[in-house]
User: What shape does this take?
Amino acid sequence: MSQASIDPRYLEVFPQWLRGLGEDAGAVGELLASDKGSDDATRSLVSGLNYIFKSLDLIPDGIDDLGFLDDAFVLRVACAHAGDERPAVKQGIVQRLADDARAVKDFLGDDYTRLEGYVKGLRKGAARGRTVEEIITDADVRTQFLQEVRAWSAGYQVPTFTRDQKTLVKLKAFLSAKLP
Assistant: This one.
């Protein structure tokens, strides 16, 4: 893959996503706090947020420049799924992040389908010992989860992002290698 084949606009877009990740996660959390749904759209949103707490995610959070981009990508794809599953939820934060998922698709190309499958599979996974189903069906678990989302959002430290084509090449290669 040549470096010239990657659209340089992502050198501006991805740092914006990193800067807003804490606020985005917080806004999706607040939406979940006010929406007591238990449908597939809710499962998508919960799984996107729960991914933030996974200890073994696609790109470890400590990796310079890339560590939280997978979280930003997963949250956007989860919002796109939520909007597909319940169109009425596709407004505000969910609409904006779902719209951003098109940029993820353009960036990843053929690997986007693998990311979509991975994100859908997160509904069956767990993070911090809690499953998506437990978050949705157990009021105490849901309350604790939403408190953790708020705390994470408030304490999120924006990581660095080197605006260099090599960073984009590294990101694509990392995800291509790690996606099932």
About this structure: Residues 3 and 12 are 16 Å apart (CA to CA). The chain has one domain: 7-172. Strands lie at 126-127, 130-131.
